Amino acid sequence: MTSMPHPYDASEPFTASRVVEAPEIPTAVVKLDDFPMYEMSSLMDGTFSHLADALAEVGIHPIGPAVVLHHRMPVDTADLEVGFPVDSPLTETLTLPSDYEVVGSVLPGGRVAAISHMGAYGGLAETWGAFTEDIGRDGEQMTYPFWEMYVSVPSPDVDPAALRTDLFSLLEPRGERVAPGPVQ
């Protein structure tokens, strides 16, 4: 697997939230709107069990961990993209054996906040909550999309406490703030 540019190639977890410049990275994803959250495991299984092979057939290869990108806050449904960062843009639609369609997309470039979650996936919501508080306390404003990269590959043999998931959120650009003055 080819290394990805910073911040996606961090060999060590981000133990505290930080703001970094992220490059735009092409992705190959299953993109769905209003997808029921209770079906997330079937979406992940139906995508990741076939996606690398489907991409290899068209000469494209994953260059990083699996990613789930959200276009809005998921509640009972989500608008999301599930796939991999890839070494070249996908320009055609691929159909997986699970009948999910794969299209080209991107992880956005720009200023992003990042932190790592260490542990079972059940603790992700708590880490996201603390992460968003840290971002606000630092005077930053999150914007959509936000995404998770599953750095550790889950398997029956992996200790859930050893799983690493990196969390990212696009931030609003920093502009010069002008103090309000008299209207002329």
3D architecture notes:
With 184 residues, this protein is an alpha+beta fold. It has one domain: Regulatory factor, effector binding domain (Multidrug-efflux Transporter 1 Regulator Bmrr, Chain A, Alpha-Beta Barrel). It is 16% helix and 36% strand. The chain has three helices and nine strands. The chain has helices at 40-48, 51-57, 124-137, and strands at 18-22, 25-36, 66-70, 77-85, 94-95, 101-107, 110-118, 142-150, 164-171. Strands 1-7-9-8-3-4-2-6-5 form a nine-stranded antiparallel sheet, covered by helices on one side. Residues 1-5 and 176-184 have low confidence and may be disordered.
Short note summarizing the structure:
It contains three helices and nine strands. It is α+β, with helices and mostly antiparallel strands and 184 residues long. InterPro entries: AraC_E-bd (IPR010499), Reg_factor_effector_dom_sf (IPR011256).
Question: Which descriptors would you attach to this protein?
Answer:
single chain, 184 residues, alpha+beta, Multidrug-efflux Transporter 1 Regulator Bmrr, Chain A, nine-stranded antiparallel sheet, 3 helices, 9 strands, globular, disordered C terminus, Transcriptional regulator, Reg_factor_effector_dom_sf, AraC_E-bd
| CATH overall fold name | Multidrug-efflux Transporter 1 Regulator Bmrr, Chain A
Outline, from the CA principal axes? globular
Determine the fraction of residues in helical runs and give it as a percent range.
10-25%
Supply the CATH superfamily name.
Answer: Regulatory factor, effector binding domain
Residue ranges: pLDDT <50 for 5 or more in a row?
1-5, 176-184
CA-atom Rg in angstroms:
18 Å
* Highest CATH level, the class: Alpha Beta
Task: Sketch the major β-sheet.
Answer: 9 strands, antiparallel
